[in-house]
Amino acid sequence: QVQLVESGGGLVQAGGSLKLSCVSSGPTISRHAMAWFRQAPGKEREFVAGINWSGGSTEYADYVEARFIVSRDKAKNTVYLQMNSLKPEDTAVYYCAQDARLLGPIPTQTRFYEYWGQGTQVTVSS
Questions:
Q1: Separation of alpha carbons 106 and 83, rounded Å
Q2: Predicted pLDDT of residue 91
Q3: Residues of the chain under the 70 pLDDT cut
Q4: Strand runs labelled E in 4-66
């Protein structure tokens, strides 16, 4: 059973930075695409950023506007999301997710992801 545990969330002022981490207990994270999603109160969960199994390809939501960077460290079974120039509208619970498929591309829809973390709260004050 795969367990994903996020950390690194918190309260930050607009313009600040946070780095989220997602550690997996599963043995095969290195062969799966990983992604970050977020969900604000009253809104649907939305794709933020993803990285393919090799780490050689990444994808970002348009609203990220080059402010975020997703990366992975296979040796540590960890995926990161560096968030810079944060805005109040970035406030949400951020979730890490693992694609169900092996060696696949980066899905942007939640239905392709098999495992999810419990989420970490990010709050950006104006």
A1: 19
A2: 98
A3: 28-29
A4: 4-7, 10-13, 18-24, 34-39, 46-51, 58-60
Which tokens is 63 given?
């609203």
SS3 for 110? helix
8 Å CB contact between 115 and 97: yes
**In which element (H, E) is residue 104 found?**
none
> Rounded CA gap, 42 and 39, in Å?
8
User: Residue 93 is encoded by which pair of tokens?
Assistant: 């619970």
Distance CA(73)–CA(122), nearest Å, equals 22
At CB < 8 A and 24+ separation, what contacts does 51-54 make? 51/79, 51/106, 52/104, 52/105, 52/106, 53/102, 53/103, 53/104
Whether 56 contacts 72, CB under 8 Å: no
Distance CA 21, CA 82 (A): 9
Query: How far is C-alpha 11 from the chain's CA centre?
Result: 17
Given this model, what pLDDT does residue 28 score? Answer: 63
